[in-house]
Amino acid sequence: MRARVLAAATAVTLLTTGVPAPAAAVPATTPAALAAPATAPCPRLPAPKVSRPPRPTPPATTPEQAAVGGEALAGTGLVMPPGSPAPPAVTATTWLVADLDTGAVLGACGAHVPGTPASTQKLLLAATMLSRLDPEQVAVATRADLDIEPGSSAVGLLVGGRYSVATLWLGLLLQSGNDAANMLARLGAGSAQAGVAEMNEQARRLGAGQTHAVTPSGLDGPGQFTSAYDLALIARACFADAAFRRYALTERTQIPAQPALKKGGFQIQNENQLIYRYPGALGGKTGFTELARHSYVGAAQRDGRRLVVTLLGAEARPVRGWQQGAQLLDWGFRLPRDASVGRLVEPGERDAEAAEPRQAAAAEPTRTASPPWRGPAGTALRRIGDGDWRVIVPVAGLLALTVGGAAAVLAARRGRARRRGRRRA
């Protein structure tokens, strides 16, 4: 009986002092808890072994980054709509196929796995600078513009040569000119490195959070990475520009003569074989370095539908990069129009999402803290509220004695009242 009274009194004490109930144990977050859903292995073509420089360690991909565009894209394996035919086997390490118009991702292999972009990074330069530069502007090439890695791809610009911005874009997209990339970055931002900073800002705005540019051309640099998903975001921004679409489909152009330098002009041709050999091709961009291996971005339209493919880390044998892209485009066009495993986020969408919690925190009313308990009684109450049983037990005992004493007094009074009543009867 006393135990029950003690327990009841303790409960009353705890309730009146406002002690919260103990929180249920919350399991610690572990990498396994954040792991992406299981996916099938990526179909791979056997590729010859090649020697390459040591691969740099990519930055860690956070669970939030891995899930951009949909939880299904967070894995490292193959993800495709249920019931779809198997995609072709390729040598690319990662790839993605998406709809340029709706933004639906039709399928991917390691969509958010970091990779090295090579010259597909020139698409980020185009997405950043195309709208800033007047295509008819004529500029003079400097020695710094021609400071590129010996043996790397170049248009053949000359120090002191005069070139229109339109010519530089054609040199960039047809011939993958690293000299043209340096010059366009300088014209758009004041210097090549300032242009790189603008490129990184544009990548952030587009939602390409895994993309970090170090050079405007895509020549390898420490810390330079992207992903198949990010490349699709960047390509979508490029193909939304009519000038880019026109440049990307140009088969050949003339680099003008430089009379003041006593140098003649010459012709360059588009290196992207997709525009010559794939019906409905819209263009794209090739890329290669010893470190990155082959990268590729290509787009095409069929029956009113426009798809884009991105791939990284491919080998040219037994199938060249653009051919692997073409096979993946064929696969994508065979899927239903409503097929999807995720989506390409819209420009500015991730910035807006990041701003929402800050706005909500700013709008939340300030709560006034309760005044602290004071005096000996207040100290005792605070210790009870903190769960100090050295105070709780004596207080509970005192309450039990008080309640018991009061009950005994009441019982005695009732007994006397009954006896008086019997005497009156």
TrEMBL record:
Pfam families: Peptidase_S11 (PF00768). Residues 357-372 have a biased composition (Low complexity). Residues 347-356 have a biased composition (Basic and acidic residues). The active site is at residues 119, 122, 176. Keywords: Carboxypeptidase, Cell shape, Cell wall biogenesis/degradation, Hydrolase, Membrane, Peptidoglycan synthesis, Protease, Signal, Transmembrane, Transmembrane helix. The keyword Transmembrane helix applies. Residues 85-315 form the Peptidase S11 D-alanyl-D-alanine carboxypeptidase A N-terminal domain. Substrate binds at residue 285. GO terms for biological process: cell wall organization; peptidoglycan biosynthetic process; proteolysis; regulation of cell shape. Residues 39-65, 347-380 are annotated as: Disordered. InterPro entries: Beta-lactam/transpept-like, Peptidase_S11, Peptidase_S11_N. Residues 1-23 form the signal peptide. GO terms for molecular function: serine-type D-Ala-D-Ala carboxypeptidase activity. The keyword Signal applies. The chain crosses the membrane at residues 391-412. It comes from the Bacteria. Residues 43-61 have a biased composition (Pro residues). Gene3D superfamilies: DD-peptidase/beta-lactamase superfamily. Belongs to the peptidase S11 family. This is D-alanyl-D-alanine carboxypeptidase.
